Amino acid sequence: MSASSVTKAGNIDIAFGKNINLKTFANRTASNSFHSWEQIPGYSTLKSGFNNFEDAFRYAAQSAVNTNGKIFFNLEYVNLQAVGNIKAGTGLYQKLDNLGGKSLWEMNMTTEWELSQVLNNKQLLKITEFQKMGKSVPLATVKAATEAKTK
Questions:
Q1: DSSP label at residue 52
Q2: Burial class (CB in 10 A: 0-12, 13-18, 19+), 66
Q3: C-alpha span between 83 and 75 (Å, rounded)
Q4: Contact, 90 vs 104, CB < 8 A?
Q5: How many CB atoms within 10 Å of residue 15?
Q6: What is the DSSP string of 60-98?
Q7: pLDDT in tens, the chain (151 residues)
Q8: Domain positions in the chain
């Protein structure tokens, strides 16, 4: 974890977004992307018990909740309409008919799955700040985009 990733109060801030610019986004928001989750207290000890990335995601996100931290979600390159098609409770590795029997993981839609998890979890949503191109995006705008239907 970079020195700026944990505030002096011990808060753990987490960054989610597409990997293409996630390290830069995490540095700008002084938060931890999956690249530095190993630095979250307890992560290294517990990771051998994680079944997959879903468990790692949940641990990192819950760490932010437990420490009164924040989640910063970079919406750049995220397919918001696809997020609206992910039903609450859908697993990242679950085979889906609408994806031709493939999982969101196989379709490189991990970030869309992460966003669906945040939008469907009141605890996570409460501490999340959405951003795009370095500017804050209101929750109502995010929800409207995920609910938009293609014509």
A1: S
A2: exposed
A3: 11
A4: yes
A5: 28
A6: HHHHHHHTT--EEEE-TT--HHHHHTS-TT--TT--BGG
A7: 343 344 445 899 999 999 999 999 999 999 999 999 999 999 999 999 999 999 999 999 999 999 999 999 999 999 999 999 999 899 999 999 989 999 999 999 999 999 999 999 999 999 999 999 999 999 999 999 999 765 4
A8: 14-147
* CB contact set of 41 (below 8 Å; sequence gap of 6+): 12, 63
The pLDDT value given to residue 9 = 53
Sorted by sequence, the CB contacts under 8 Å of residue 111 that are 6+ apart come out as 16, 17, 18, 19, 77, 78
Separation CA 113–CA 105 (nearest Å): 9
The residue type at 27: N
Note the pLDDT of residue 148: 75
Q: For residue 70, what are the CA distances in angstroms to 53, 73, 106, 139?
A: 20, 10, 28, 15
Take residue 145 and report the two structure tokens written for it. Answer: 């985009």
**In angstroms, how far apart are the furthest CA atoms of the chain?**
49
